[in-house]
Write a structure and sequence with these properties.
The chain is mostly helical. The protein is built from 11 helices and no strands. The protein is globular.
């Protein structure tokens, strides 16, 4: 039963974040391409380990915690992880005919990153338990999603601005590599120190990087959605199909007020957390019963209890999450 709860709690945040970014796309991508990209993100763990483990063994002999944490953060984690995510976008997603507008770069970038994050999350959660699942749902999983959005934005721009293609790709990779390294550096440094008196300050660096990345990713998504709406409106006025080869800089709909946008963001986050928690309880209990981890005499009471504890937060959270995304989309 515990194993079932851990598995669901590790996967649920990634699934909802994939849905969120997919819903922000005015022209959603085909599920076949989307989930293949996700699967490739999962498989990217293998080459990351092949590169990272030998470097980790070399770095681990360094006794100075700050130097060891820095090298681990950049050369074991940030550089190889972001490189193989970029490789998925360039060698698979970007080559699909369905990749036909800049917003697709963000969607596929997020999906590839969350594929990697989901597998990584499963490993950490099974090792550390539900407390790790909760902490990573607030930190590492969103971090990978936002990094994927930023990287995907530059890949999407590169596909439609051929004269700057490689400059944009290098710029995007460099940005997320630096953000990733700065995010991991304090955490890995603290792991190398037995008694860290400056632990709070180092942790604040990680939080600051996460907030900067979140703000950056949200602004990029908002910018491209405005461009989608502007192209759609221009095409409707001209009676033509939308074309994304030359995108205008703003949309035709009036922007949301600050209060409305903040309210929609809070609603979406609360819905995400509620749905993740409720879904974890419901699916975990169902799997436990199905696999025989719960005796037959207790199965009905467990299912009824799960319905009360999990179903209502799941349904309520999904309603909040979906309507919050719709409010952000201006609907």
């Amino acid at each position: 039963m515990i194993e079932s709860l851990l598995a669901v709690s590790a996967i649920a945040p990634s699934a909802l974040l994939v849905w969120y970014f997919h819903a922000r796309d005015l022209y959603p991508e085909p599920p076949r391409i989307l989930w293949t990209t996700f699967a490739l993100g999962v498989l990217s763990v293998l080459p990351v380990l092949m590169v990272g483990v030998p470097i980790h063994l070399l770095v681990n002999v360094i006794e100075v915690p700050v130097i060891r944490g820095f090298l681990e953060a950049f050369f074991v984690a940030a550089i190889p992880e972001e490189f193989f995510k970029l490789a998925i976008l360039l060698l698979y997603s970007m080559r699909r005919v369905e990749f036909d507008e800049p917003m697709d770069g963000i969607v596929y970038g997020v999906v590839a990153s969350l594929g990697f994050a989901t597998f990584e999350n499963v490993l950490y959660v099974f090792d550390g338990g539900l407390s790790v699942a909760v902490s990573r749902a607030f930190s590492a999983v969103p971090f990978h999603a936002f990094a994927g959005a930023i990287l995907g934005y530059y890949v999407g721009q590169a596909k439609f601005r051929l004269e700057e293609k490689w400059l944009l790709i290098v710029k995007g990779y460099g940005a997320v590599m630096v953000l990733h390294g700065l995010y991991d550096f304090p955490l890995l440094t603290l792991m190398a120190v037995e008694k860290a008196s400056s632990g709070g300050l180092l942790a604040l660096i990680t939080v600051a990087v996460l907030l900067i990345e979140w703000r950056w990713a949200v602004r990029l998504v908002r910018r491209l959605r405005k461009e989608q709406l502007a192209v759609q409106a221009a095409a409707a006025g001209a009676g033509d199909a939308p074309s994304f080869s030359a995108l205008p800089s703003s949309g035709s709909r009036p922007p949301l007020s600050v209060g409305t946008r903040i309210g929609a963001i809070i609603q979406t986050v609360v819905g995400l957390l509620s749905a993740s928690g409720g879904g974890t309880v419901v699916l975990g209990l169902m799997l436990a019963v199905a696999m025989g981890a719960v005796g037959e005499e207790h199965a009905m009471s467990v299912l009824v209890g799960g319905a009360v504890i999990g179903v209502f937060p799941l349904i309520g959270g999904l309603v909040l999450f979906i309507t919050g995304v719709q409010r952000l989309n201006g609907r």
